[in-house]
Queue: 4 jobs
Job 1
Amino acid sequence: MFQLTRNPARYHGQKKKPPFFEGWYYRMVDKDCRESVVVIPGIFKHKDPLKSTSFIQVVDGKNPEAYYLDFPVEAFRSKKRQFEIAIGGNSFISNAFSVDLHRENLKIKGNLHFKFLNPWPVSLLSPGIMGWYAWVPFMECFHGVLSLDHSIEGTLLLNDREINFTGGKGYIEKDWGQAFPEAWIWQQTNHFEEDGISLTASIAIIPWIGKAFPGFIIGFLWERELYRFATYTGAASTLLEIGEKTVHWIVEDKKYILEMNTETGPSTYLRAPTPQGMDRQILESVDSVVEVRLFRKIKTGKTMVFQGKGLHAGFEKEGNIPKLLQMVKSG
């Protein structure tokens, strides 16, 4: 467990009892921001071995449209001491993947390589984006960020389109555990006016020893510094307003205030895990917009140090959102 916890990218399910899922999320946007594709390889271990499966999901952001391709669980293979998995003839590592899929409604083939990855820092006390919560074995769902921002080389053939991703930008994260939360909001973008800026932010209902709390984790990468706002850092979510297609969210800690205003774009359905299988449908947008403002607290109030819009953002709003809002308001 010690080595796995300090290596969030690796496959964690070798000795896990079902129900258990694990999935890696690769998102790519081309240089001209005309194409976006998401590829999600994963595995679900069911209590009934006959219902266990491995899978690859693909999102064509231009349409938008999503595809779910299932495989026998035996098609999933992984290395024990490093992140390297394969599903059928498709392979995935931290800085590259290769896919060759042909089904009735989907054809995708190609190899992509990623350079200058920016993984969430890992230390003994805070092994990744979950902080010390990563050491808690009974968490319902674990989360990892393998790269906040990186460049891409390579081409994908997606149905009738050849997409050149060279010079584009990518993002990689993952989840593993028993099931997704009861409710959550998630957003991610690394397409600001200047290069090297990235935001990932999520808030969810977290089960905790017979109770629950609204836990959040946010990373804002700017000028090579990662600003972290999270439940475990002592930050607070001071405002969360959710409309049909908008989210206004403010968090703050002792030094900074981070304000995010989101306008959601077109969405498509992905599959997500429950304890019974990959049978939950969730809406995801890959073309939302997040306006970000970062303030530094001063004696007389606050001063703004950054303002910008993140385009082509990934966004999810799922589950019992009224309950999540009420928990945030209750403090």
Job 2
Amino acid sequence: MTVKFLIWLTLILAIFGLVMISSAGVYLSQKNFGADYYYFNHQFLFGFLPGLILFLIASRIDYRIWKRFSFVLIFLSLGLLALIFVPGFGITIGGAKRWVNFFGFFSFQPAEILKLTLIIYLASWLQQFGKSKTGSVAAFIIILFSVGVFIAAQPDIGTLGIIISIAILMFFTAGGKFKQLFGIIILIVVSFSLLTVFSDYRFDRFLVFINPNFDVQDKGYHLNQSLITIGKGGFLGTGFGKGEQKLGFLPEPVGDSIFAVIGEELGFVGMIFLLALFLLFIFLSFIIAKKTNDKFASLYAIGLASWVGIQSFVNIASLSGIVPLTGVPLPFISYGGTSLAVLMTGVGILVNIAKNTGQRIRT
């Protein structure tokens, strides 16, 4: 394996996502826009192409520059999140404020940008971890709380869980002790429990998780349709483009539920292929983290691998009934230009890390 393999792996994941969106989105494209490939075209023009450009730029910028401006980046990201709640900028869809629109010119999801900038900021901050353990732990909790307030207010608890999980893994890698982690995790579990209990739709999702047969025509509809979709694929699938569940039965077939479409059309083989790609990406990122002597670079690589690994697991596990259903996209695959472009930018930074540390990974 070399840096070239990381580049090709990223391109394969992104192109695989485009191909699946072209199939999963045909029915919705026709229904909502009167065109067969609206979602594919939109993802290509506003996700893949900008992501490719940002990937090339990031791969050529010395990664140490990101460390130098880490505080500015996280501050600007929080500012973009705040714009969600400003009339005229924030867009509400399905009761959630997760998008910012700039004067009708373009829209994006600030939370996706925050994932990357938070990884950069934490990598920069945690490389100094250990000089004052008590102060460091308190500061870490304050950072998570500051970010959590913005994300929970959207509300987007799935994204909040992803962000916190990434932060905890980076904290532990930087030298956090089990005792410290235990206290932080207890605090987080209590917070999430309260957020669930005092929210009807979150509590309903928990009830569906406990009993998938609970209210299958309403509250449990999404999970049950997802399980049906995956089950129809069997070992080899029904064939690319031949899935039926995307034709108005499965909610969000191009978005959070696209893995179920992959299961139906490409079967067990297709799902294993995609999982193998994710595992290879995570493995390669961890190898780069291990080989570099720069702690910031190492923590960044671990953060990026954690982002892809945790979010992939949560998406796939929620559609399979392993964890409560939550609305997070499948990295590189789900429809969403901001997510794809930001992820590709993040990989560009990782490529630069590998190059600048003289990294070459041999088979």
Job 3
Amino acid sequence: MTRKSDVEEVKEGSVIVKIYTVNRGQRKVFSVANYYEGKRKIQQFTDYKKAKEEARKIARQLNEGQHKILSLSDDDAWTYTRALDAIKNYPVRLDAAVNEWAAANKILGGIANIQEAARFYVKRHGKVTQRMVPEIVVELIRQRQHKSEQYRRDLNFRLGKFKDAFSGYISNISSKEIADWLHALGGHSRSQDNYRRVIVTLFRFAIERGYLPEGKTEAEKVKISVNDDSEIEIFTPEEMSRLLDRAGEDVLPYLVLGAFAGIRTAEIIRMEWTEINFAGGYIEIKKSKAKTKGRRLIQMQPNLVAWLKKIAKQDGLVSPLTRPEKTAAEVVGAKCDPIVKWKKNGLRHSFCSYRYAILQNEHQVSAEMGNSPQMVFANYRELVTKEDAQKWFNIFPK
């Protein structure tokens, strides 16, 4: 039981802090009582000196605070009381509320007041469900399971890097942060733009799921200037003949569909034999498999028909390879004598160049290739002669 003699008072001005000494068997405990924000708080010490130091510190702080409050003018006291009344329903101290207000005004920089900024935020984000980037990436990849293996592999690879860099809420990511991250990746601008396109897909998916507000996303605000000043390289008829003579049946469909129909690699990988109509003489590129998401029909040239009939099947995928361009570049070209240097996108570039030389009509060529007439006219006009073009489409199986 605590006796009156066990209580010591530490005084600072008009403030008194008490130290209670309690005997607990062989040892003593010194308790310092402190009233903070209307609540009684007890601190216990086994060292008397530390207990007294703490009591003096508390008394000094309380005295200074009381002195400041007592020295307020009538107007200041009225303002202080009103401020306390304004935040009484919120779990925040007055100084914290004022600091937050000052920081918010500094961010706004005079372009709007805090109320306007708050209304705008609620309008934009009030109905948005907050989600972390890694969670959304998992949802997107799960939704795209029906897509081709190459598409899913690319999605996993690029978004895997993005979610490692941005693991927080997607709504907090700015266009500047995305642009800085893309720049830090290095490499060619074309590669950076490919990353940007995948990130845009992620942000548009987030809008569909209600994780971002409607409108232009931060990812879409990022612009990458794609510098592609490299010369368009094409194969000569002689080089193409050597490649086809040494190609196996695994890579042959890729070579002839690219060279004599101008079909993109990604579209060839997805193509099935049922989409090649030998009776009608055309190839159907379905909307779901086209890069531009538009269905198109390609008229088959006689030499293409001859090549395809050598290896045609009733059904299944036309190309058994998921990366036929790698096989063509590393294996087929190396077998040629002399060696044929592989040209990036050379098959499609070659078809467009030779086809334009014969037709002299960018609209018809663009319809077959799935590009714009302007692009065809600007890049493939007058690259080859009509005589070379006739040689190209006269390459038949031996």
Job 4
Amino acid sequence: MVESEATLGRFEKYLTLWVILSMIVGFLLGKFFPELGLWIGSLQVGDISIPMGICLFLLMYPTMASIEFKEILKAAKSPKPTILTLIGNWVIAPALMALLARLFLSNYPEYAAGVILLGIAPCTGMVLFWILLAQGDVAKGVVIAAINALSTLILYAPLAAFYLGIGGVPVPIAPIVESVILFVGLPLALGQISRKVLLDKRGEVWFKDRFRPVIGNIAAIALLATIVILFSLKGEVIANQPLIVGLISIPLLAHFFIMAALFYVIPWLLKFDYRDAATIAFISSSTQFEVAIATATVVFGASSEAALATVVGPLWEVPSMLTFVKIALKTRHHFFHGKTQLYTAR
């Protein structure tokens, strides 16, 4: 496997700026043209937003095309990162979010409930994109994401019932299955098929120097479009209730950075290499907000404070992940001397 540096072409250098501008554009669209957000929100098939689905697929496809299938098979034979990530997702993350919700939202029980539902829902497919940017092990990320999806079907409902103190919490099967199929399975299959066909027909040099930068730019555009859509959908809410949104954001951001830092340092203490540490950190700190939103809507109602709290989560997903990508890349040589073997597409 040829080692080279993963990039998003010309977009990568100023990606933080583009993200901030996209957040502002989305917010302004949602505030001054709320009917646009309503129209975008109406474009759905089942529980899936068509514009969001297209953007997330275009974001995930280049990520999946960047790895070799044999690397996924190899990753499945390395259980230690998976075990550590499962401990982070199902033992530490829910307890930490419950603690933070009680510290910051003790006077707002429904907001606290929504935040807790986010803390219990681990790992969305988008996290694989951030692992790629941080030059972690995307193949291991695919394996762990699949295992997380299966464990969510078993563990999400009982943990939600335990931490919320209520019975009858439903298992949100549809969002879990749809997310895995549309944003992991389908991009993985198409990415691997197109990778093999293009490598056979055009060769490795063309794939690396011509095709990969193009799909990298497509991924960057899809990421920015995703941000614009998210903030346009919630621009009016942010404008009308900025203090509440800010209050909900405190435990969400604290949870993300505590989990990311903790599960970046623990692999270092256990002498894992950088690629494993980055993968574990991102998956342990990521949340599958689709599951939390679906659960809050069913249990508390679509217009509830709990549902509002869950929709604040996606607004911070991209800026938080992007920030930690930069932290990980800047600290890798300080923490992982001699253990910074990097993976990128061949």
